[in-house]
Amino acid sequence: xxxxxxxxxxxxxxxxxxxxVVSVWRRLMAGVVDWLVVLAWGAGLGTLAAILxxxxxxxxxxxxFVLGSIFLGFPMACVVVIWKExxxxxxxxxKGDTFGHRLFGMRIEAISGNRIGxxxxxxxxxxxxxxxxxxxxxxxxxxxxxxxxxxxxxxSGYQIGVIxxxxxxxxxxxxxxxxxxxxxxxxxxxxxxxxxxxxHDWIAGTVVVSASVARPPRASAAVSLxxxxxxxxxxxxxxxx
Length: 241
Description:
By secondary structure, the protein is mainly alpha-helical. It has one domain (19-213). It has nine helices and two strands. The protein is elongated.
């Protein structure tokens, strides 16, 4: 992978003067749009799950809704958010952009100018979104701890669950703060980088450019053009440099 990255960097933006690097503010606004769409999906399905749980005739609707939000709604919201981010990465590999990028006229591509593969897009998406990689992924094992802690309290009579609930609650707040700080730091990095690339772009070997600029020809096409343009030699013709 490092050799591939080195080959692409050798043919980087310096050799492609027509490439227009997108400003940090446009990238930030595109990211906000994408996250609003993702969070709308997560919050919508999570709330729907909590409401359905609240309609059960176990207790009052209010208590059922609270329990449904903790045990079903919020975990479902986290899973939906992760699923949507993976689907966004899949769109990047196939179309070269997200909904927010298309709205603000930009696209994601490799340093060579080609589209990136799906696995590479997924890695880039997770590294470039601390809110996803630091917050939502870490919330899944923390949420799974809640019913385990309650069971321990019921069986043993100790207050282990109270400590666990306090840790989960603290991370729900401070995890959001940490991921937000990392997001801001990444965008500050983009502002000082000459090519406007964040650390996820450097690791994945990508760059975000204006969609108005035409893609460069693929290397395979360029090779075929050169081979077709070169004069052919007869079978017995002697080669002379």
